Amino acid sequence: MSSAGMLAGLSLLVIGDSHLATPSYLIDALPSILMEQGAKVHAIGVCGAMPADWLVKTPGSCGGAERTGASAAVVMTEKVFTTPINKLIESERPSAVVVVSGDNIGSYMNPVFPKTWANQQVTSLTKALSAAGVACYWVGPAWGTEGGRYGKTFARVKELDAFLKENVSPCTYIDSTKFSGQGEWKTIDGQHFLASGYRKWASSIADEIIKNPPRKLQ
Amino acid sequence: MKAQIVSSWVLCFLFQSFAMAEPQLYPTGPSEDASYIRFVDTLDGNLEIRAGKDSRIELTQLNSSTPWQSVKANSPLSAGLYFKNQMQDVSVSVKPSEFVTVAAVQDVKAGLRVVEVREFSPDFSSLKVSFGFMNLVSNCSSASVRLAGKDVVIVNSVSYLAVARRMVNPVSLGVDVYCEDKRVGNTVNLNLRPGERWTLIAFPHGEEVGLMPVLDSFP
Predict the structure, then answer these.
(1) Is residue A187 within 8 Å of residue A139, measured between CB atoms?
(2) Containing H/E element for A44?
(3) CA angle B141, B143, B148 (to 5 degrees)
(4) What is the ipTM, given to two decimal places?
(5) What global pTM score does this model have?
(6) From the CA of B149, how many Å to the nearest CA of chain A?
(7) Which B positions 103-132 lie with beta carbon below 8 A of chain A?
């Protein structure tokens, strides 16, 4: 990684799915690495939240976590809801929003990827971000391992990655499949990595953000 | 005994820690793809669509298409279409991934005729433009769309009650419609922007063919 301070002066709002909803997952590693580079970070993970669920207050299905600055992530044990993205942007005025959302729209148990539904999910959030005029990044799924409890396969990850690459504009797409080989980062369930895997993922995401500084949307 | 109790407590603690660390199983997306329906008014006059007791939408010449509405797949959807003193009932079922357009068109004898056009979108892109052409003209057995004034075909061989769709670059352009090899209607000018989805509809209009560009929208 480049020398420290590459993200100094930036405030980043990171929202996403189960990868951000448990301490020792991405919610620990990613904000820490971004803060080492000088960014101010607020991260919120709502387990089970689909992209469009960030438009209106929507309940998650399996908990959540939140981390503000250097404080430890706080696990939300009561009924967890998303906060509408417009409300978050208005109150925090972030330099950029980082959306971690890929596995949650993969529909891994379905033999056919529901492209029409996925398109609506993704574009409703990107349109809201574009309307708010805030720079954004979309982090796609990493490979994971096959044969896990969620039915994740490399073929579906490839299809989902190609779909997101084509459909998340004007957000900058961060292709997580470039960061490792298939199955290289071990998982506990096919989808969620060990702490070491999350650190590598977080480091690669931070590198991409450094290489592609936030551009305010017109 | 004490060692066994301590071991049990340790096991309980470890089990609880693991349970807290492990996310609950949840489905990653729906079991089937989304389905959509919309209504289009190609008539000279307002069209009212009524579904159920209280749901009604009025389409006008300025607002001639409803947004796409997400509906439950494989479930019959009923509506009444009201135009002047005529009414027609429709019942439509939409498959997963399908987009169904229910259009009110002019009928020389009956005045109002309701037709359905079904399509499955081949792809989506926020970088390009999805351009579709829909043929509602019964005596136009094969329609095509070309760049205005040029022999460049955008879509070809679109039969009656069919739609052809392709990705194009986000540019401003004029297009002409042909029925067989005869040009119909005036040039339609479009200002295409990335991520948009358009449907150019050819419909019967008196003795001629009317052309209606619709910017597809979702709620």
Answers:
(1) no
(2) strand A40-46
(3) 160
(4) 0.88
(5) 0.89
(6) 32
(7) 121, 123-127
